[in-house]
Amino acid sequence: MYRKQLTWQKILCFAAIAVSAIVFLYALGLMTDLYDSLYYTMMDPSNPDDTWVPGSQIYYHMQPYNKQLLTASIVLILLSCSLFLTSTHSRRRYYVGNILTSVAWTGAGVYYSIWAHGQSEAFKAEFLKISFADLEFFSEMMDTPYIDSTFWFDAHYVVFALVLLVGVLLIANLCWKFSLMSAEKRLIEEGKKVA
After folding, report:
1. Residue 192 pLDDT > 70
2. Which residues pair with residue 51 across a beta bridge?
3. How many structural domains compose the chain?
4. Using CA atoms, how far apart are residues 35 and 66, in angstroms rounded to an integer?
């Protein structure tokens, strides 16, 4: 039973790093389409209200959120690395550091998921207020990309569902580890060999 659990905890730690990297890539990709489509509609970049396309100011409104999302992804990556630094991926017995890093990753993941969902939905609603007829006309006139897709806003459901899934599995792994540790302790007290 211990071997299965050890294999499982290793997979989970690698999954935490992979999902954190996905959040990082999502943060990088989120603004790319908006930049390609909306940046050139601004007549004066120092004055976002001076635009060819009503509603295109969302590009500027989303900048702080995108920076915070990028920071959140880096925090998740660092917390994932801390899982490896505390040997959460390979340790037979968990100690305080293993518990803290697992709980910290899960807590951060839940917090960022809830926060990002609220922000993404608010910005999606703002994005849909863009005058797409004006944007299409501008794109044809200036030969810039025309984008009316909400893909990047909708992708947050998948990205942060993965974050929540890994968080839940880290806590489930923690509970499984505790039950195995208490069973091992009972066997040792009874003088039996642990398999």
Report:
1. no
2. 42
3. 1
4. 12
Does the residue 175 lie in any domain? yes
In a domain, 194, yes or no: no
The type of residue at 133 is: A
Among the listed residues 34, 65, 45, 66, the one whose alpha carbon sits nearest the alpha carbon of residue 145: 34
Q: Is 43 helix (H, G, I), strand (E, B) or coil?
A: coil
Which residue's entry shows tokens 């071997």? 3
Distance CA 98, CA 107 (A): 14
122 falls within a domain: yes
Q: What's the domain range around 38?
A: 2-189
pLDDT digits (tens, 9 = 90+) for 98-113: 889 999 999 999 999 9
Look at residue 147 and tell me whether its pLDDT is greater than 60.
yes
Q: What is the pLDDT of residues 32-42, one digit of tens each?
A: 888 888 888 88
What was the pLDDT predicted at 194?
55
Over the Cα atoms of the chain, what is R_g?
A: 23
| 20-102-160-39 Cα dihedral, nearest 10 degrees | -40
Q: Distance between CA 6 and CA 195 in Å, rounded?
A: 13
Specify if 195 maps to a domain. no
